[in-house]
Model the fold of this input.
Amino acid sequence: MIEGNHDLRPRAYLAKYAPALAESRDFDLDQLLDFQAYDVTLIKGFYDITQDWTITHGHLGFSISHIAGRTAQNAANKIGKSVAMGHTHRLAISRESFGYQGKISTLTGFEVGHLCDLKKAHYLKNGGANWQQGFGVLDIDGSYVHPQGIPIHKDKTFSVDGFKYGGK
Done:
């Protein structure tokens, strides 16, 4: 699991308001969710899934664009490899190609959406934001990576590989 800024909030809270408890690992995310029992590894920063692709939460040093897909694309252009990331709460795939004389390379920026209930996000002005509900899927076969953005519709349905899920 990629660690994000929301995952850091309990630690920051303890450090500020209960420093005696902050020394304990009992409040670390991997302990609270028992990652060891489920063979889950907590990854901080970036994780290269292939030579040409990395995944990250996205809160570490990238400027946020108001255009879906641009934050990840800008990150890809900055680091020189394709990027899948969260943090923006947007669902989009962006691609840019570079080169000359037929020697072209393409970088992909993939923002993987969010699973929030916006009705409970009282901190949002007007109860909404330029966020797209959904999630990302990466099909990986060797060095080949195929990103898919899966939107979740108003009726809470979504489709993956031709199968419809969710709804009431």
Remarks:
- The mean pLDDT is 93.
- The chain has two domains: 1-44, 46-166.
- The longest strand covers residues 91-100.
